[in-house]
Design brief:
By secondary structure, the chain is mainly alpha-helical. The chain has helices at residues 16-22, 25-28, 32-48, 54-72, 85-97, 99-102, 111-147, 167-192, 211-217, 227-232, 235-261, 289-312, 327-349, 355-361, 369-378, 383-400, 409-415, 429-435, 444-460; strands at residues 152-157, 160-166, 194-195, 222-223, 269-270, 352-353. The strands form 3 sheets. A two-stranded antiparallel sheet has the order 1-2. It has a two-stranded parallel sheet with strand order 3-4. A two-stranded antiparallel sheet has the order 5-6. The structure holds arginine. Keywords: Amino-acid biosynthesis, Arginine biosynthesis, Cytoplasm, Lyase.
């Protein structure tokens, strides 16, 4: 059976349904370039250990290079008879260099240490791509913040009117978690950069092969300390799946807001035509589908993480075939993010903000009540009293159907004698945001400083 890596002890081949169940080439083919790269490194350590002559090494590397070229241009692919990418590539090597030389490569390695190594290599490259895509979203948010330095919007808690904030402050509040996600990817990479190669099936190699040499050759920081752990643990994959799910959740929070903001009731933003869709029946519709797909796919990425954790749970040491289920959820999460990140970047970069309307709505719902209370505290009034007094101002304005700034001087001093007309200096949304000038606050100086910090951080990545 060409492409089979086992069979010596079997009198017959697998049943058709067994082979169909076992097959993984339809997804693990993504590992093929890494498999060949690692095979070249393995050939070099076999040579160093005296298990492959210099001529054989040259022939082997040449065969692997030709195989890599054929994989890259699609001339070589998995056959019906191939169980997995590893078997398919051994068949491809033997087709190119013959069974005598091609049959020497597998010494001292197992698919168990191979697949764990290749999955780590694939994942490290994927995490870098995702980090770069996410950085584009951060840059789009920062550019929008910088383009609207003075814009004021209603700040909300519980989705109820809370306090006015700068639009830039709000947008950067979405950039911060994304920067932390990028940092999480970099941190996860540290733990992923450990090579299982040389662990064999579980117990390590007896052939004098050097795991440190192969680790270095493949760009890993170090070889694994324990061959049983190296072939059976997948916490590196679960950690990446968590960060991917966290990214999706963070972008889903942003998406939810874009969806709300683009309703006529809010009217904060208009979406660019290029990043929205229409309706097949309602001619007036312009729908926020990018944001909705982002929100929806967050559920899918949470599922990818949850499924992977459930697969890992309760597996005894060491390798079990259950582990073949580790790759698809992680591949899926990355494929979804690679579609989503450019679209979310485009959506954010082209949002047209209606800043006049946002500023007009900013005082609605008595959002300056906290400013009254804090102004009184600055006049020496205990906050407990100030809170009560500001609350009474809200009650009075609400009953008259007017804003806090429309209460006349007499009414204010009537509510509390310390409420002199000077309080009016904080009864504007601009006065309110400008007063919140401590580190991390919403004052324009603070938001400008934040933009500098975020830009410097993203330039460093
Ligand atoms: N295709 C397997 C995986 O993805 C690797 C092969 C290990 N198979 C085995 N019977 N030991 O995990």
């Amino acid at each position: 059976n060409a492409g089979s890596l086992w069979g010596g002890r079997f009198a017959g081949g697998p049943a058709a349904a067994m082979a169909a169940l076992s097959k993984s080439t339809h997804f693990d083919w993504a590992l093929a370039p890494f498999d060949i790269q690692a095979s070249k490194a393995h050939a070099r350590v076999l040579n160093k250990a005296g298990l492959l002559t210099d001529d054989d090494l040259t022939g082997m590397l040449d065969g692997l290079d030709r195989l890599a070229a054929d994989v890259a241009d699609g001339t070589f692919g998995p056959a019906e008879s191939d169980e997995d990418v590893h078997g398919a590539l051994e068949r491809g090597l033997i087709e190119r260099v013959g069974p005598e030389l091609g049959g020497r490569l597998r010494a001292g390695r197992s698919r168990n240490d191979q697949v764990a190594t290749l999955f780590r290599m694939w994942l490290r490259a994927a995490m870098r791509r995702v980090a770069l895509g996410l950085l584009d979203v951060v840059d789009a948010l920062t550019a929008q913040a910088a383009a609207h330095p003075d814009a004021i919007m209603p700040g909300k808690t519980h989705l109820q009117a809370a306090q006015p904030v700068l639009l830039g402050h709000h947008l950067l509040a979405h950039a911060q978690p994304l920067l932390r996600d990028i940092d999480r990817l970099a941190d996860a990479d540290r733990r992923t950069a450990v090579s299982p190669y040389g662990s064999g099936a579980l117990a390590g190699s007896s052939l004098g092969l050097d795991p440190a040499a192969i680790a270095a050759d493949l760009g890993f920081d170090a070889p694994a300390e324990n061959s049983i752990d190296a072939t059976s643990s997948r916490d590196f994959a679960a950690e990446a799946a968590f960060v991917f799910a966290m990214i999706a959740v963070d972008l889903s929070r942003l998406s939810e807001e874009v969806i709300i903001w683009s309703t006529p009731e809010f009217g904060y933003v208009t979406l660019a035509d290029a990043w929205s869709t229409g309706s097949s029946i309602m001619p007036q519709k312009k729908n926020p589908d990018v944001a909705e797909l982002m929100r929806g796919k967050a559920g899918r990425l949470i599922g990818d993480l949850t499924g992977l954790l459930a697969t890992l749970k309760a597996q005894p040491l060491a390798y079990n075939r259950d582990l073949q289920e580790d790759k698809e959820p992680v591949f899926d999460a990355v494929a979804q993010l690679e579609m989503l990140l450019p679209a979310v970047t485009g959506l954010v970069a082209t949002l047209e903000f209606h800043t006049d309307r946002m500023e007009e709505l900013a005082p609605a719902g008595f959002t300056l009540a906290t400013d009254i209370a804090e102004w009184m505290v600055r006049q020496g009034v205990p906050f407990r009293v100030a809170h009560e007094v500001a609350g009474a101002c809200v009650r009075e304005a609400e009953s008259r159907g007017i804003g806090l700034d429309e209460l006349d001087d007499e009414t204010l001093t009537g509510i509390n004698p310390s409420l002199t007309p000077a309080v009016r200096e904080v009864l504007t949304v601009r006065g309110s945001v400008e007063s919140r000038n401590a580190h991390g606050g919403t004052a324009p100086d603070q938001v400008r400083r934040q933009i500098d910090v975020v830009s410097a951080q993203s330039a460093d990545l």
